[in-house]
C-alpha cells in the first residue's frame, strides 16, 4: 500500500522550540524519553530509532546520514526553512497541539499555522498550576479552574491530562478535603516564589474529575498519557486498565477518552478498552516512531487485534524539533501500510477495506471525534 496521498490529521503533538531555546538544546535529546546526560549524549545514538532516523532525514534535507550531516543541514537551511521542508514532506492536514509542555520555551500555537491549520488542547495540570499562583483561596481556585475550562476558545478541541506522570491512572473518587490541603501546600510554595508542581494524588484526581464532568456535559474529548514516557513516570501505574472505573461511570459516558501512545507496552489492554467501551479511543503515537521497525509493527498489529478501526487514530506525538513531525509521519505511513497489507493477505480485510481503514486511522476518525465532520484542513 502507498499511503503518501493521505494528509495526516495529527491529533496529538507539541509545539516547536523557539530559535533561542533551540540554540541551547542538544538535538539528540529529542530522540529519547531519557534525560540523564549519559543517555542523551551517548546511548541514544545507539538506538535503532536514531540510526534509522538519520537515514530518513538525510533523504529530505539532502545531507549525509550522520548527526554532523543533520546539524550542517540545519545550519545551511536555517530554522524556518528546515521546519518547512520537514512539514511539507510529512503531509499534514491539521495539527492538534498540547502547548503545556515546556511552555516558556516554545513557539506560540498560532505560529504553527504556517505548516497546517492548528488547534490546541488545554493541559489541565498546567492550567491548574498557573491558577494556583493567581488565587489565594480554594473556592476561588475551584471557580477559576472550572471557568477556564468552560470559557475555552474556538481553537480548543479538548483537554489533556498528564496525571499518569504525577500520581498514576488509578484515579479515585473526589476527596475534597485532601485536595484542599494539597492546594494550601502549593499555594504556600507559590507565595514564596517557588514553582508549582501538582503531584498530590487528591488534588490531581480532583482536577481530572472536574475536567471530565465538563467534558461529559459538552461531549469534549479528553486525552490521557498512557504507557511509557520519561523516568518521571512510574510505568506500573500508567497501564490504561487503571481507567476502568472512569469508563464504568455512567455520568461520564459522553466524554470521549483518548488513550495516547498506544498505551505501549500495554497496547493490547488499550485495544481491549476501545473494543468494549463506547467512549474509549486508541492512539498510535510515540510507539511510532520510537520503536524498532519490528516494534512498531507489533504495536500497530496489537491495536488492530481487537479494537475497532473506527476507534484507532494516528498521531506523531512530535515535540520540540520539526524532525519528529516528519519521522512520525514517515514511519506511521510505512508501518500502518505494512500491517494493513498483512491484514489483506490474512483475509481480515479486503483491499478496499484496507484503503478505507488507512483513511480512517490517519484522518477521518480524528476529524469526526474532534470536529464532528469527515475532513479537516486542505485535501
Describe the structure in your own words:
This protein has 379 residues and is an alpha/beta fold. The chain has 16 helices and 9 strands. It has a single domain, classed as TIM Barrel. It has an 8-stranded parallel β-sheet, sandwiched between helices. Helix 14 crosses helix 15. The longest helix is centred in the C-terminal third of the chain and has 25 residues.
Short account of what is shown:
It contains 16 helices and nine strands. The protein has 379 residues and is α/β, with parallel strands linked by helices.
Outline: globular
Number of domains: 1
Number of helices: 16
**Mean of the pLDDT scores?**
97
In helices, the fraction of residues equals: 40-55%
Regarding quaternary structure, what we see is single chain
Characterize the biggest β-sheet: 8 strands, parallel
CATH topology assignment = TIM Barrel
The percentage of residues in β strands lies in 5-15%
Distance between the termini: 19 Å
Low-confidence residue ranges: none
Number of strands: 9
Keywords summarizing the entry:
379 residues, alpha/beta, TIM Barrel, eight-stranded parallel β-sheet, 16 helices, 49% helix, globular
